[in-house]
Design goal:
173 residues, alpha+beta, Alpha-Beta Plaits, 7-stranded antiparallel sheet, 7 strands, 29% strand
């Protein structure tokens, strides 16, 4: 079982349509408000169950399948792909997306989700590249306090800043 990372992304832009477009883009269904596959899809070939089994009667076949996948895709299986391309091994869990709100000339919404082990840096970088008019601020906190919480800001495919901070007593309550 992983240590969960709790992510809260604040999506901000002067362009309301860009915020709404991002909201619609990441949604897979009413139940899945933020699907990483919408941003960086896992190749179907890497989801083959044979690539995720080790040992047993089909060991040689499994090893050959992983070798072929690595040669074609650069990854042995979907989990390897996700760790490198998303920054976490599984898709977002416990997702929620707020309504778009307007504050003066800015429009914003929040995306809340959990990830296994770490925040999805490469995925958020790609999302910011796809929606260059939007600033993405991700506040990430680890459930076991293995690292201090931090805020990373992404815009137009670039990491603008990453700031680690000490949680206040208020945050810990």
């Amino acid at each position: 079982m992983p240590n969960w990372t709790y992510n809260t992304c604040n999506i901000i832009s002067k362009n309301r349509d860009a915020v709404i477009a991002l909201k619609n883009y990441i949604k897979a269904s009413d139940d899945v408000q933020f699907d990483f596959n919408k941003v960086i899809p896992v190749p179907a070939e890497l989801k083959d169950p044979l690539l995720h089994m080790y040992g047993g009667e089909k060991k040689e076949q499994q090893d050959l399948a992983r070798k072929d996948a690595k040669a074609e895709w650069g990854y042995e299986n979907a989990i390897d792909f996700c760790v490198q391309e998303w920054g976490t091994k599984w898709n977002a869990c416990e997702t929620s997306v707020s309504n778009v709100e307007t504050h003066g000339e800015f429009h914003s919404m929040f995306i809340r989700f959990e990830t296994a082990w770490s925040p999805p840096h490469p995925l958020l970088l790609k999302l910011s590249e796809l929606f260059p008019d939007v600033l993405i601020q991700n506040d990430a906190r680890d459930e076991c306090d293995c690292y201090n919480p931090f805020v990373a800001e992404y815009k137009a495919g670039k990491l603008l800043s990453e700031t680690e901070y000490e949680p206040s007593e208020e945050d810990e309550e």
